[in-house]
Amino acid sequence: MLAIRNLKRNKLRTCLAVMGVAFAVLSIILLASIGNGLLTTGGNILDQSTIHLWVTGGASDVQSQYMGTGESMITDAHSMLGSLRKNRDIAWGMPLLTEMVYAYRDDAEPKAIFAIGVDGTGGSMVTIIQGKDLGNDAHYNNGKYDGKWKNEVLIDSRTASLLNVKVGDTIHVGKTLSEARTQKFNITGLTDSLSRFSSNPMVIMCLSELQDITGNKYYDGSTMILIRLKNPARANDIQEDIQQKYPQYTVSTNQEYLKKALKQNSLPLASAASIVILAVIMGAMMAANTVLLSINEKKKEIAIMQVMGLSRWSVFKSIGSEGLLISLLGGTAGILISMPLVDMLNDLLRAYMGIDRLVILQPDYLYMGIVITIVIGLLTCFLAVMRISAMNTAELLRGL
User: Fold this and answer.
1) d(CA 136, CA 119)
2) What's the gap between Cα 95 and its chain centre?
3) Pairing of strands 152-155, 170-174
4) C-alpha pair distances (Å), 297 with each of 125, 290, 292, 294, 356
5) Helix (H) or strand (E) holding 104
6) Most CB contacts within 10 A, which of 80, 263, 309, 348?
7) Rounded to the nearest 10 degrees, what angle do helices 2-9 and 322-353 cross at?
8) What is the CA radius of gyration of the chain?
């Protein structure tokens, strides 16, 4: 077939066009798979956490954690928790404070890590792999923050690796580097129970002590309050009751909290979608450009074929179908690559974040890749037909 010979003649241009289509198809499949994984796996994680309601302030996003703003804080957290525990439908409640802090061992480089302050031992949320738990939080002392410091922290496996420390070691922890130099904490235990909620290495410490070193003690601030119900089926009713009592805060069910988190971090998702759209456009342009350049190089041959009596359809089948071949090759490559690539991404994310199946590939997404392949192929075919139809045979043959 003449189209195949033409593609072989300029291998570099053909390879680039095929790669462009493959990248476009691969990008749209991966974006859909990541979105599906975030919704499915994120929902499963929240359901498995046995948390039924989430009480938060304003925006609870990564930016507020890094900037250390009080925008998302719940004030008078201990008092609010005491009030919530009086509700007979609530089995358990836990205020959490999340902050970015500096941590390091002596004579080592400071690292920015995620700190979580928990009330008491953290209850059933914190399972100790090695060592012991934090015990009771004595520093709060009914809001005076003058009780005895425990100066103890729990670490997860990622922090142990990052700081090269183990249970029994001592590390510096502080909101700023200067504060960290004077604040030492003993590592009493290792736990990965909360690692699924953050991609960052983390330390877990007593709530009041984290409030103190980050300046949140002045208004008893916490990032959120987690609630476990005796009867999860009544989550919506209890949510309404708490929301009416505390209108200044947001009370969310698991699914509502997940949607809120995705919405607050929509900028990276929108950026990824823009890149995918650009990849599809560029893939289509590269395929079309290859076909149009090939037709332009063979203008006189096409004119001779038409003079010999070949119809424009016959000419198109011989030369213009290059675009369809490029699209089929690129689309097939993109679809085949997507399947092992999804497994590789899941392995990397599991190793880095401790979350399994964050990228979930569905057959529908492969069909979507096939549709994109067909659309690009039809577009290049249409442009080829238009270019061949616009040729002036007499003008092209005049110079022969």
Assistant:
1) 8
2) 25
3) unpaired
4) 69, 11, 9, 5, 52
5) strand 90-104
6) 80
7) 60
8) 30
- Please give the span between the terminal C-alpha atoms of the chain, in angstroms, as a whole number: 26
Contacts 24+ apart (CB under 8 A), 214-220: 214/68, 214/97, 214/99, 214/101, 214/115, 214/175, 215/175, 216/70, 216/73, 216/97, 216/99, 217/145, 219/70, 219/73, 219/75, 219/76, 220/75, 220/76, 220/77, 220/78, 220/79, 220/143
pLDDT tens digits, residue range 5-34?
666 777 888 888 899 999 999 999 998 898
The rounded distance, in Å, linking the Cα atoms of 220 and 231 is 29
| Domain boundary assignment for the chain | 2-43+267-397, 58-248
Residue ranges of the chain with pLDDT lower than 50? 60-71
Query: Is the model's pTM score more than 0.70?
Result: no
Instruction: Write the CB contacts of 55 (distance below 8 Å, at least 6 apart in sequence).
Output: 74, 80, 224, 225, 226, 227, 242, 246, 249, 250, 251, 252
Q: Please give the pLDDT value at position 6.
A: 66
Alpha carbons 82 and 93: distance in angstroms, whole number: 9
- The letter for the amino acid at 242 is I
